[in-house]
Specification:
The protein has about 300 residues and is of the alpha+beta class. The chain has a domain of about 160 residues: Alpha-Beta Complex (Adenine-n6-DNA-methyltransferase TaqI, Chain A, domain 2), CATH 3.90.220.20. The chain has ten helices and ten strands. A four-stranded antiparallel beta sheet has the order 2-9-6-7. Strands 4-3-8-5 form a four-stranded mixed beta sheet. β6 and β7 form a beta hairpin. α4 packs across α7, α4 packs antiparallel against α10 and α7 packs across α8. It is elongated and about 75 Å long.
Length: about 300
């Protein structure tokens, strides 16, 4: 293996410095090492600067003991991350098991929207909503960042005044609406949670209010994300001259199965169980990371 100028290779003297101990120490000092970088466009740490970095060097036996403890703790972190990845993928597996083979007698998204006018809509365009009109509090405005992870998240909150909202009320999203991104990272999809305050969506989002006598919101989200026929259609149509993109017409024309509501409800139940397990595992991961950081700190302070 060879490295280019983007790397600094550290080759420890085996009798003095254990390689795994050095690795764990460097991992624990990322912020410090980054602070040593210089450069306007991107940060670079010179060989001279690296050579001056001081590393605590206990006896080689103590280094190996510390490295072993941190290796074992790292295994716990890796296993937790692996379990989270499996839980994250479980709803997809459940959906495909239940509905992946339904590829005949498909219907269009336009047919499963609510009968109310504007049940499938994008957000305000052009001068209807300018960035300069965003304020610190008021009526929330949902964008790509709230949808991009395929889980509804309150990232980068934006608001408009109540007065501005009155002019944009037709773009209101309500609990149970299905939101799909149609520009940039297009095709990401969430269901609006029940506890959402009054909000509208931007032009980068298509909102769908479904006819719940035909489909459940979580099932429609599953079709957007996982159904093979629906996904193939979106991938084929989401082509732009500059970047991939969708539009409301494409969304309305997307084919999808419409199984009995009881079967959809069973999928939703199983998906919710999986989601709760995912949340528990994610909280556990944060606790494990905090514990690992504490172990690191004690290890290199000679308190392990």
């Amino acid at each position: 293996m060879a490295t280019n100028q983007g790397f600094k290779s550290l080759i420890p003297e085996a009798e003095v410095l254990d390689a795994k101990y050095l690795y764990h120490w460097l991992c624990s000092k990322k912020a410090y090492l980054q602070s040593l970088g210089n450069g306007a466009t991107f940060k670079e740490i010179s060989k001279t600067t690296v050579a001056r970095v001081e590393i605590p060097v206990p006896s080689i036996e103590e280094q190996r003991r510390i490295a072993t403890v941190l290796d074992q703790a790292d295994v716990v972190r890796a296993r937790r991350r692996q379990s989270i990845g499996q839980l994250d993928d479980l709803p997809r597996a459940i959906f495909l098991e239940m509905f992946g083979g339904m590829t005949e007698r498909l219907r269009f998204v336009a047919e499963v929207g609510s009968q109310e006018k504007g049940s499938i809509r994008t957000g305000p365009f052009g001068s209807q909503l300018l960035h300069s009109e965003f304020v610190d509090e008021g009526v929330a405005v949902l964008g790509i960042d709230n949808v991009v992870t395929n889980r509804f998240r309150w990232h980068g909150r934006r608001y408009v005044t109540p007065e501005k909202y009155q002019k944009l009320k037709r773009y209101t999203v309500v609990p149970g609406d299905v939101l799909i991104t149609i520009m940039g990272t297009c095709g990401r999809c969430v269901v609006v949670p029940e506890d959402i305050p009054t909000a509208i969506n931007t032009k980068h989002i298509c909102a769908i209010t479904v006819d719940r006598a035909q489909v459940l919101p979580e099932f429609l989200r599953g079709c957007f994300l996982w159904h093979p026929v629906s996904r193939r259609f979106l991938l084929q149509r989401a082509k732009g001259s500059i970047m991939d993109g969708l539009n409301m017409g494409i969304i309305k024309e997307m084919p999808m199965p419409v199984p009995p509501l009881g079967l959809q409800a069973e999928f939703v139940r199983r998906a919710h169980v999986s989601a709760r397990a995912f949340e528990v595992a994610t909280r556990s991961e944060r606790e494990i990371e905090e514990l690992f950081s504490a172990i690191q700190s004690h290890a290199f302070a000679g308190q392990l």
